[in-house]
Amino acid sequence: RRMWSVKYLRSPLSRIVVYFFLQWYVCDIKMIPESLQPLFVQSHLDSGTQVFLSHCKAKSSWLLTQLYHSFVTSIFSLFMSKTSINGLLGRGSMFIFSPEQFRSLLRISPDWRMQRVLDLGAGDGEVTKIMSPHFEEVYATEVSPTMKWQLKKKQYSVLAVDEWQNVSFQYDLVSCLNLLDRCNQPLTLLRDIRRVLRPSKGRLILAVVLPFQPYVENGGKWDRPSEFLDIKGLTWEEQVASFSSDVFREAGFEVESFTRLPYLCEGDLYNDYYVLDDVVFVLKPV
């Protein structure tokens, strides 16, 4: 045991690997219902995640750049949202899964291809970029004007937030990543997604920060959503089970696979990165 304890590992990278593995990826299988246990996909700190963390560390050390970002943020925050400022500056990119983790969760090969993917609330499109090689057509939605600009620079088809539900075609995959807890009508959103997915073959990849704490930005204030999801339990495992039994069934989905991953964000002058605790589901229409 002493060999694997963080205290006695000389290499800083080794200490990071062990610590992150224990804190970010472990699920207590015995604490979830038996029906969900075989659906859990064990993730780990892979090379793709380490590259992102190394990039965050390097970027955080750019002193002049970080000072410039802080100055611009303090001025522009008077009339722009933080998301739009990040889009303007090209900072604050999110990381949810690596290409290998994405394929493992969907149980697909590197050469797997389908026609259409839709990324809801795609931000600057960095996560979209992980999924896009597997699809001929890539669609995205975003509220922030500067983030839309970033998405168009990456040549994605940007749809209005009230447009994607009313197209004349269906999607092979819809991603809804860390959007459900910031949505005013989360159950309606899930039902709309189910309606635009291809029957039987369509899939939803859904990431949710746990513990689940929903609130919606409304004119600079944070309010509770009009549709409230009654998620039961205190632990990560209990809330995962509640989503499966209390939310997905009502919305017409069932869990095909799920995993535990860190929701990472580029840092600033004070922190290399920021992290939240995610569950990522792959859901199929019932």
Automatic annotation (TrEMBL):
- Superkingdom of this entry's organism? Eukaryota
- What does the record list as coiled-coil region(s)? none
Q: Which InterPro entries match?
A: METL9, SAM-dependent_MTases_sf
Report the GO molecular function annotations: protein-L-histidine N-pros-methyltransferase activity
Q: Which PANTHER family match?
A: DREV PROTEIN, PROTEIN-L-HISTIDINE N-PROS-METHYLTRANSFERASE
Protein name listed in UniProt: Methyltransferase 9, His-X-His N1-histidine
